[in-house]
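Hi R.,

Here's the chain you asked about this morning:
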Amino acid sequence: MTEFQHLTDIINQTDGVESFDGEEKLGQPMLNLSLVYDWGIVDAFILPGFRERTFAGQDGRLRSGLVVNTDEAEYESSAEDKHVDLALRWSNSIDVFDLGVYWFRGTNREPLLQTRSIGGKTELVPVYQQIDQLGFDGQATIDSWLWKVETIIRDSKDDRYTAFQGGVEYTFYGISETNTDLGLLLEYGWDERGKDATSAAQNDVFIGTRFTLNDEASTEVLLGGGIDADYGSHSFLLKPAGGWVKTGKSAWMAVSSVLIKPLILQWRFQRMIAFS
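And the predicted structure, written out as tokens:
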């Protein structure tokens, strides 16, 4: 749905080694029952087992000053990575609207990173909590306008918060009498936790442009940037897909402050570029 942050993407785990921006995912074993009705599609998921998030190691990039020791991962559930998670989703298309509502209960795919003294060294340890999450995603297609929104309410033993990502995209079709389309994007990301948020967008405005060639290889390029109203930082995104690249991976660059702002890590990058 939205381009600069995907709040409702909850089932698949993120590959933190291959994907600095969270786009690359690890597979998730599941049982899925899909029921089609006149009033929408209902999908029920049973998710046996859990895959831990991967992080860059001692010699990996990008990472914080402290290494994340994934061998010492901790779980709130006594079943640890054998916990069976559940999810339920309703979706439907009504006139110009594409709507979806879901509920998830299980192990949080986004671990807390807490410091531990291991073998005389201070390291970060991922801690996986149990959560309940309600989510909504909506999209309205009105002529050349595409309105998008994603919002979640997440509840854990430590806190309960709401987050939002929404925006609009306007497309110019067949520019200069070619097959190329040009889209202009504007999005805003908000997290109720403010500066305590672990997400990349707690009070951020994003602008971007998308070039779509409409060729056989489905070539397109998304170029954009963000401004953080709390930290005063700037970030840039270059994401090619289709014929120009085989992997469709993206590059993020942060200038003169923070790109990702976990409370614990307090990462700072200066003129840093990352390919994920």
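The first strand starts at residue 13 and ends at 14.

Let me know if you need anything else.
M.
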